[in-house]
């Protein structure tokens, strides 16, 4: 297998492309199939439709299945329209059931049913089972291609079984042991299997301390569990402990990417609109509700300023520092929000506890406020020649940043307590709240000390 480097990537790709365009079947297959599957995927995406049609002709459905599985969903939808129906059906038959289920879950039900009817009964049954689970649960992302072994089997028989069924399994580094009722009873690592006496029974070498997940568990919880234990795979069981599948670390990497993308969308108030493949209209439609909601929050900010119109009329110079107060409050609150959401996601919040975590953020806010206040109390008298103005702005910023960190830390915790994703306490949402609080603090202090200005 060839793994392309930056130095030889273009040259090697040019050789494959030349063989494809010259219709040199054997030369193309020899060069192309030597590539790493991911490099095959990258090369395929650069082809024009006429060139892709030759690829379908030169590669078997089994070989092309490796490429199709690596494509993004939208790319799969486009490519499937180019494939001959028989070719596509044979390709689905060669794919992992979980990858087929991921694709069929996103296409019209009638089309999915047509594909299922053309598959072998066992594969179709497994895919229907995967499609029956709620999205973003362990059951929905597990694979059915795994090996389970009986507890009373001899190790030598298990090794022979590996030779026969191992090539079709998602992974064989862990072998899960079941009893007569197909309940999860233990686990045997490949190392234990190879290094133990082949005459021993599986139950003599297996570990009964098995960490598993339930079909209904959230995919993010599964990701955290695999990260915690450094697993390559984790078994999935039903409520009665029946082993029904496994989740491998490569699927969890996809989950982590998906969850991170979702959190980023929440942070910037554009959930569902971070995909660059969306049209401008679709992206705008998804972002519009957030923007409109934040626009109304902006009216609240304007209302706060309006309440202190008299103060502003008397000391117009106060308006100069409104952006400074608002931006500093929003930025500090967003920083605390990011820290807290990350803490909740990684589990460190539970270890430290709410009091210690919030206290730490409040302390951070105090120091940030102090640093900024001192800086302004030095600069403002130099620029504006007004010590009292410097005191008002500095004190306001000190209090604002201290409170902003509390808001940024507490709001996501409260949302998490409501069993919601804490990331929905988005940056713009927290920023608007802190803007309002910052302005109220600023103008309240300015109004109280107006006589000294």
UniProtKB/TrEMBL annotation:
Cellular-component GO terms for this entry: plasma membrane
Molecular function in Gene Ontology: magnesium ion transmembrane transporter activity; metal ion binding
Transmembrane feature ranges: 290-308, 314-341, 362-384, 390-415, 427-450
Gene3D superfamilies on file: CBS-domain, MgtE N-terminal domain-like, SLC41 divalent cation transporters, integral membrane domain
Keywords attached to this entry: CBS domain, Cell membrane, Magnesium, Membrane, Metal-binding, Transmembrane, Transmembrane helix, Transport
Topology of the protein relative to the lipid bilayer: Multi-pass membrane protein
Pfam name, any one: MgtE_N
Keyword Magnesium: yes
CBS domain boundaries: 142-204, 206-262
Subcellular location: Cell membrane; Membrane
Oligomer status and interactors: Homodimer.
Biological role stated in the UniProt entry: Acts as a magnesium transporter.
Family to which the UniProt record says this protein belongs: Belongs to the SLC41A transporter family.
Protein name: Magnesium transporter MgtE
Species lineage: Bacteria, Bacillati, Bacillota, Bacilli, Bacillales
